[in-house]
Design goal:
The structure is a single chain. The protein is an all-alpha fold. It is built from two helices and no strands. Helix 1 runs antiparallel to helix 2.
Length: about 90
Amino acid sequence: MSNEISGTEVPVTRLDRILAVSSLTLIVAAVICFVVMIIGSMITVDFGTPFWTIITGVMYYGLPLGVLLFFTLLISNTVRRAKLAKAARGNQQR
């Protein structure tokens, strides 16, 4: 197997990796915090402590931010693919 990039492959950049990992991390953390909040309400804990405030904040803001990062990744890859396809079409016509 060679490490060469063919004309149809989109190169993966560091920004893509960062967006993918942070998006996945935020979404998973938000889901875990949601489950923890459900369990906490079942055992009737005091939600006024700083621990529960942080859990609530991650739950409220983590999922929308993770989805926003995911869509940013999706849009950047779509734009990069379009540019590569346009460049490949330009090279084939010559």
